Amino acid sequence: MNSEYLITFLTISFLVCLSPGPSMLFIIHQGLSMNWKNVVAGTSGLIAANIIWTTLCALGVGALMQSSQQVFIVLKYIGAMYLIYLGFNSIFSKNKTLCNRRTENSLKSYMSVFMKGFLTSMSNPKALLFYIAFLPQFLTGTYSYCHEIFLLGTLNISVIAVVMLSYGILSNKISNTMSSPKFNMFMDKILGISFVIFGVSLFRYRSS
User: Fold this and answer.
1) Fewer C-beta within 10 Å: the chain N or C terminus?
2) What is the DSSP-derived secondary structure letter of residue 90?
3) Is residue 61 part of a domain?
């Protein structure tokens, strides 16, 4: 596997990660309404989910899931309903002050954010398609199938970690400079509506 393939893969992976999606919205929401520790917890959840997707792909389970239209449809509906749930939860969340939100530093709150990040990625069928339809196109046969899948998966996960942490930390800094109850409520509503839109669009999404 030569460096040209790896650079091309990293570039495309970076652009995909930069594009708007549920994971990006989730991390931005954590950065705006919580603190940097929640950003780390949420990103860790996304990373954990992508490790599982990579492992499933390497074991060939992902391809079996894609070949079954029923499995894809079930995953699609679960993902759509979860995004809509996150959206309504954000839209109708209690009006806590930013200070109160950011003092919720218990292990329980971090685990909750971790699980939300994990489920956001695991319930997204587009993540499945990325690993079983896009990623294998960069396999060269230089090493074993599993070896190359894990290599590319690790590179993609590294990109996810860098991009999502950057999104979260930047949004947290913006929140620190523009902090006010009205700004908080406004961003909760905007991000909540965005989650609902992504959820509805996922209902309409079809595997090619």
Assistant:
1) C
2) H
3) yes
Look at residue 105 in the predicted model and tell me its pLDDT.
60
Instruction: With residue 50 as reference, give the H or E element that holds it.
Output: helix 36-59
Computed over every residue of the chain, the mean pLDDT equals 81
pLDDT at 66: 59
Sites in the chain below the pLDDT cut of 70: 1, 62-68, 94-107, 178-181, 205-208
| pLDDT in the model for residue 161 | 96
**Token pair recorded at residue 7:** 């650079």
d(CA 130, CA 144): 20
Residue 146 contacts by C-beta under 8 Å, 6 or more apart in sequence? 58, 59
Q: What angle do CA 179, 32, 29 make, to 5 degrees?
A: 150
Residue range of the domain that includes 152: 24-29+36-93+106-204
Q: N- to C-terminal Cα distance for the chain?
A: 28
Which residue in 194, 203, 175, 174 sits closest to 86, CA to CA? 194
* Residue 51 in domain: yes
Distance, CA of 184 to CA of 186 (rounded, Å): 5
**pLDDT number for residue 97:** 47
The pTM for the full model equals 0.81
Contact between 138 and 11 (Cβ < 8 Å): no
What DSSP assignment string belongs to 127-140? HHHIIIIIGGGG--
d(CA 159, CA 56): 19
